[in-house]
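HOLO CASE FILE
Compound: flavin mononucleotide
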Amino acid sequence: MEFSEAVKKRRSIRDFDERPIDKAVLKAIVEEAQWAPSWVNSQPWKVYIATGDTLKAIKKDHLAKVQAGEGGNSDFKRAPRESFGAFPLKNMQTLGTHLGTYLNNDFTEFNAAQGRLYRCGAAVYITIPKGSPEWAIMDMGGFEQTLMLSAASRGIDSIPAYEFVKFPEMVRSYLGIPDDELVAIGVGLGYASDIAMNGYRSPRVPLDEMLVIKE
Ligand SMILES: Cc1cc2nc3c(=O)[nH]c(=O)nc-3n(C[C@H](O)[C@H](O)[C@H](O)COP(=O)(O)O)c2cc1C
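Model generated. Tokens follow.
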């Protein structure tokens, strides 16, 4: 698959068909993501993947917590939308409206998808050491995107989601993640189901609103 095709093929999928992903393929995707750049080649990331019975148990506990109305307590704290700045805030507002229109302003299925962790075939958790500088967070983001692009190039869909990491203690206990690692983000992998919501394509800002080239 051409690189630009993989880039465009990757988009957040919110309902998978629960089919598992071959372990060798998971390993190949992570190995490819390892080629992401990092500060002084620090490679701050570690990866924990839940599949099979472990994933089943995580999904069950996650849903129970969501249904009990338990609030999230992610290692990276949730930030108010305004704190992102005026330009990203405007984009978030546009995105909300855009998705809302697509869903006829009915978020029932969307919210249900979060609670069931999108019925993903594998949940990939990326950690970095506690107390990491901002540069390591940047490096981790590059790793995360490379991982999703590698998946896309192999016909595997994905979603990066806060939803995966909102109960980090639960995830830690299932996967044996030590206390000195931050559960930074989770990526769901799998094969998209044919649910209507998966047809959504998020827009991007016009290039001339975010790009300056000076000669
Ligand atoms: C760090 C991060 C956290 C996210 N968390 C969620 C989430 O909890 N639920 C969700 O539905 N989408 C989540 N997303 C997906 C974004 O909404 C999505 O990337 C964005 O709308 C752009 O759409 P696209 O990924 O389809 O291109 C998250 C994305 C990122 C990068």
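CASE NOTES: The two ends are 34 Å apart (CA to CA). The chain is about 40% helix and 15% strand.
CLOSED: yes
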